[in-house]
Amino acid sequence: MSIAEANAREKNYEIVVNGQQLVVHDDVLSYEQLVQLAFPGSDPGLRYTITFRGAKEPKEGSLKPGGTVEIKKQGAIFSVTATVKS
Question: The domain that contains 49 carries what CATH number?
Answer without folding.
Answer: 3.10.20
